[in-house]
Automatic annotation (TrEMBL):
Superkingdom: Bacteria
Cofactor(s) essential for the protein: FAD
PROSITE patterns xref list: FAD_PCMH
Residue intervals of the FAD-binding PCMH-type domain: 46-215
Keyword presence, Oxidoreductase: yes
Pfam families: BBE, FAD_binding_4
Identification of the protein by name: FAD-binding oxidoreductase
Species this chain originates from: Amycolatopsis rhabdoformis
Length: 467
């Protein structure tokens, strides 16, 4: 099933006015005040050009937007902050959810119920007031919904609790036929399975309910070493990993950062390597676990400390303002000595790479275990994720893509056979079967046929309807 959405006609002002009359939120056409702000995404090298944007305030608005898309035979794309948009949405209806940002914490049940527009920073802050923590991502400005529906690889609690999708209790979702459903393990179980891992392919999620965990503090931060010591640090880290408990989550990063005032002085314009840690046990045990890695080389910066969970964003210290970049990620099935040597060759001190960040996250633990209520997350059993990030304007697109491709192509001998959809580049033309594996893809395609047979939700890494 193929579509030429670029040939769809513009939305007429009278059509937009009719839609605006039945929604609480805003309806914006190209040229309207606010249209450019609402179509903006986190990656300044990516542009959305939708036919119309509906800034929704409730599930009824979402239903009206979908009904409008059905009448015009238009695709639908959902956007919160736009950290990972796919395609340009030309001819599409974009549903902007950022006004649906309610966060309600249930201290007794240890759960959160959040609107589709909530950000992780908001959930972390509210949960921390009750001494609780979610399976949040590394960047506080990422939207909860897209991250969770794509699996959700928490760099703080992931090894001890698994994917964020594993702990979703229920979803409110509007399907392609405009019906608002409560989706959980007992009601619409196949849609519940598909949404958790299948990302935006099946419905517009308007609210999520998920588990929180009693983690008021953790021992975490980063150890930064001179880049010239990459080989020593990488070898020590990989040798250390098999001995750590599941309560310790860690990653390794090679950094070539610009000279920006917001960066700590030792890292400005420097080539460095970093080990990041998040340990949920007692701080004294965390210090003991990290101690061997502190002796590998003289650190240029050590931010590892006991901290309230509300400060977890400081561990990775990722940018929170939009910037132009290109990134791609793969999974690794192993990282033996030969693979480590290749990584050193590709991004180490003797390489000519300009890559800002090359990151390896160590997985395992609960990430490998199927949850009590299974879902569509495809990457269990793969022990590492590898991500390459280049930063630069669109004028340098060819160079940026070649730089990241050199890393991933070089590590191809150790790549896994499935992918984490949250780490895919917007324009990667992958057969979805290559993301999920053939058996899981067949089940996803059957769910797609049941809930979105016309493939309305296609501006994504698309699962096509079966048949």
């Amino acid at each position: 099933m193929t579509f030429d959405d670029s040939s769809l006609p513009a939305v007429r002002p009278d059509e937009a006015a009719a839609l605006a009359a039945v929604v609480t939120g805003s309806v914006l056409l190209p040229g309207d005040a606010g249209y450019d702000e609402e179509r903006a995404v986190f990656n300044l090298n990516h542009e959305l050009t939708p036919a119309v944007i509906v800034v929704v305030e409730n599930a009824t608005d979402v239903q009206a937007a979908i009904a409008f898309a059905v009448r015009g035979q238009r695709p639908v794309l959902v956007k919160t902050t736009g950290h990972q948009m796919v395609g340009t949405a030309r001819g599409a209806v974009v549903i902007a959810t950022h006004r649906m940002a309610d966060v309600v914490i249930d201290e007794v049940r240890r759960t959160a119920r959040v609107g589709a527009g909530a950000l992780w920073a908001e959930v972390v802050a509210e949960a921390a007031k009750a001494g609780l923590a979610p399976l949040n991502g590394s960047n506080p400005t990422v939207g909860v919904s897209g991250y969770t529906l794509g699996g959700g690889l928490s760099p703080t609690l992931g090894r001890s609790h698994g994917y964020a999708a594993d702990h979703v209790l229920s979803l409110d979702a509007v399907t392609a036929d405009g019906e608002l459903l409560r989706v959980d393990a007992d009601t619409e179980p196949e849609l519940f399975w598909a949404l958790r891992g299948g990302k935006g392919n099946f419905a517009v999620v308007t609210a999520l309910e998920f588990d929180l965990f009693p983690v008021p503090r953790l021992y975490g931060g980063g150890l930064y070493f001179p880049g010239e010591r990459m080989a020593d640090v990488l070898r020590a880290w990989t040798a250390w990993l098999p001995r750590i408990p599941e309560t310790m989550t860690s990653s390794f990063a090679v950094l070539r950062l610009p000279s920006l005032p917001e960066l700590p002085e030792p890292l400005r314009g420097a080539f460095s390597v970093s080990l990041r840690f998040a340990y949920t046990g007692p701080a004294e045990d965390g210090e003991r676990l990290v101690a061997p890695l502190r002796t590998v080389a003289p650190a240029i910066l050590d931010t590892v400390r006991d901290m309230p969970y509300s400060e977890v964003a400081s561990i990775h210290n990722e940018p929170t303002e939009p910037l132009p970049y290109y990134e791609r990620g793969v999974m690794l099935r192993e990282l033996p000595e030969q693979a480590q040597e290749k990584l050193i060759e590709l991004v180490g001190p003797e390489s000519d790479t300009t890559m800002w960040i090359a990151e390896v996250r160590a997985l395992g633990g609960a990430w490998d275990r199927e949850p009590a209520v299974p879902n569509a997350v495809a990457t269990r059993g793969l022990p590492y994720s590898l991500l390459g990030v280049e930063v630069g304007p669109l004028a340098q697109e060819t160079r940026l893509k070649k730089s990241v491709a050199a890393l991933l192509d070089g590590m191809r001998p150790w790549q896994g056979d499935r992918r984490l959809v949250n780490n895919l580049a917007p324009e990667e033309a992958l057969d979805a079967a290559a993301i999920y594996g053939p058996e899981r893809y067949r089940r996803l395609a059957a769910a797609k046929q049941a809930y979105d047979p016309g493939n309305m939700f296609r501006v994504n890494h698309n699962v096509a309807p079966a048949g």
